[in-house]
Amino acid sequence: MVKYSDNQLDDIFAALSDRTRRKVLASLEEGSQPVTELAGEHDMSLPGFMKHLRVLENAGLLERTKEGRVVRCTLQPEPMKEAASWIAQYEKFWTDKLDSLARYLYQQEELQTWNKPRSERSPRSASAATTRSPRKGSGARGPTRKR
Description:
Shape: elongated
Order of helices and strands: HHEHHEEHH
Number of strands: 3
Strand order of the largest sheet: 1-3-2
């Protein structure tokens, strides 16, 4: 595997940072295409479009070949594999950190549930108003007083 320097990774990420250049690379996934055909898909002058191609070529993401008067561009995906590998290292790092945070929060939630005072464990009404107990009906007739 070819190891890329930081400058090469900078060039790759700089080239991929532009929407037009990403669209060019997506078009080239289907196979090599003439420059005029690629440029026709974008609303810009040919000299402006050629600057985008030069950035992609300098980053090693495409190769230009000339057949007579026709210049064709071909996708070179190897540099993108290196960039993806670099991103994957940081994806693993952040996944590990987020998993560790999730375990910590789960543990804190469990400890909080076990340490609650008994009075808080009984369910209470969400209403702040007091509820009167229903009035008891009278029972049997009590003793009468003689007069």
